[in-house]
Amino acid sequence: MRLDKLLSETGHGSRREVREIIRKQRITVNGSIAAVPEMQVPEDAEIRMDGVLLEKPGPVYLMLHKPAGYLTAVSDRSRPVVMELVDEPVKDLAPAGRLDLDAEGLLLITNDGKLSHQLLAPKNRVPKKYYVETDRPIPEGAAEILTNPIEFQEFTSLPGIYEKISERSAFLTVFEGRFHEVKRMFHAAGCEVTYLRRVAFGPLELSDLPKGEYRRLSREETELLKQCVSNQHNGV
């Protein structure tokens, strides 16, 4: 990777700013002063700025509290997208999965395409927990319907985990994340979803992260994410 691009993507300034840093001979690569911004840097190179060792760029994992009204996409010509809420000097960040335009809650943003694919693959059955409010009292037989497979035209849903909160609110955990799955499951149970918020994704919990804000995952949270996929592969 080019030296100026590497420095920019690791948060050391804009491309213009890091070029100036390089020209001032503040950067060394494997002990030698880097002379030009266009220098190609080996993957295993030791890079220092003012004598301080710089960490190599790696995958980035963010937790965003998506507000309603934002499209889960990198870009769109007419509507605001979730990536407008993320200010990170990192290339190829994208949402892992999606939340409906009117839905809120936990959205994982990452440039780790492999892990993103693994987390979303239906066969891996990564749990996704939602808080739901409905337009009418949830019918008495809803628990029986939601905790058993439901046949839809395109697929048959896996049994969910249903936790009633009040007459018109509940938690539902699903294990596939199919298109409009939670809304369609409640429709099958005899009511319509009026409010939807994802409160957990795998081992991650939204907790008190303010709406519209994001944070980087801790190393422990990242390892738990990877572990939950690994456990599925191993049949745990």
Biggest sheet character: 9 strands, mixed
Helix content: 10-25%
How far apart are the termini? 39 Å
For CATH, the homologous superfamily of the largest domain is named as Pseudouridine synthase I, catalytic domain, N-terminal subdomain
Radius of gyration: 22 Å
Secondary-structure element pattern, one letter each: HHEEEEEEEHEHEEHEEEH
Spans of at least 5 consecutive residues whose pLDDT stays below 50 are none
What is the CATH third-level topology name of the largest domain? Alpha-Beta Plaits
Q: Provide the domain count.
A: 3
Mean pLDDT, all residues: 92
| Number of H- or I-type helical stretches | 6
In the CATH hierarchy, the architecture of the largest domain is: 2-Layer Sandwich
Content of β-strand: 15-25%
Structural class assignment: alpha+beta
- Which geometry do the CA atoms define? elongated
What is the CATH domain class of the largest domain? Alpha Beta
Give the number of DSSP strands: 13
Q: What features would you describe in this structure?
A:
The protein contains six helices and 13 strands. β1 and β2 (32-33) form a beta hairpin. The model has no long low-confidence stretch (mean pLDDT 92). The chain is 22% helix and 25% strand. It has helices at residues 3-9, 15-23, 113-120, 142-146, 181-188, 219-233, and strands at 27-29, 32-33, 47-49, 52-53, 61-66, 94-95, 104-110, 128-134, 161-166, 169-174, 193-201, 204-205, 214-216. α1 (3-9) crosses α2. The strands form two sheets. Strands 5, 6, 7, 8, 9, 10, 11, 12 and 13 form a nine-stranded mixed sheet that branches. It has three domains: 3-53, Structural Genomics Hypothetical 15.5 Kd Protein In mrcA-pckA Intergenic Region, Chain A; 58-121 and 213-236, Pseudouridine synthase I, catalytic domain, N-terminal subdomain (Alpha-Beta Plaits, 2-Layer Sandwich); 127-201, Alpha-L RNA-binding motif (Alpha-Beta Plaits, 2-Layer Sandwich), CATH 3.30.70.1560. With 236 residues, the protein is an alpha+beta fold. The two termini are 39 Å apart.
